[in-house]
Amino acid sequence: MSEIINNREYRQKALKELIQELHTGKSVTEVRERFAQLIEGVTPAEISEMEQNLIMEGMPVEEVQRLCDVHAAVFKGSIAEIHHPEMVPGHPLHTFKLENRALEKLIDEQVRPHADAFRADDSRENIHRLLADINLLWDIDKHYSRKENLLFPYLEKAGVTAPPKVMWGVDDEVRAALKDIRRQLSDYSGGAAAFAATIGELTEKIREMIFKEESILFPMALETLSEDEWFAIEAGSDEIGYCLTQPEAKWQRSRTAELAAQREAMADDAGAVRFDTGILTPAEIGAMLNHLPGDITFIDKDDTVKYFSQGKERIFARTKAVIGRKVQNCHPPASVGIVEKMLSDFKSGQKTQEDFWLNVGDAFVYIRYFAVRSGEGRYMGTLEFTQNIKPLQAIRGEKRLVED
Question: Is the N end or the C end of the chain the one with fewer CB atoms within 10 Å?
Answer without folding.
Answer: N
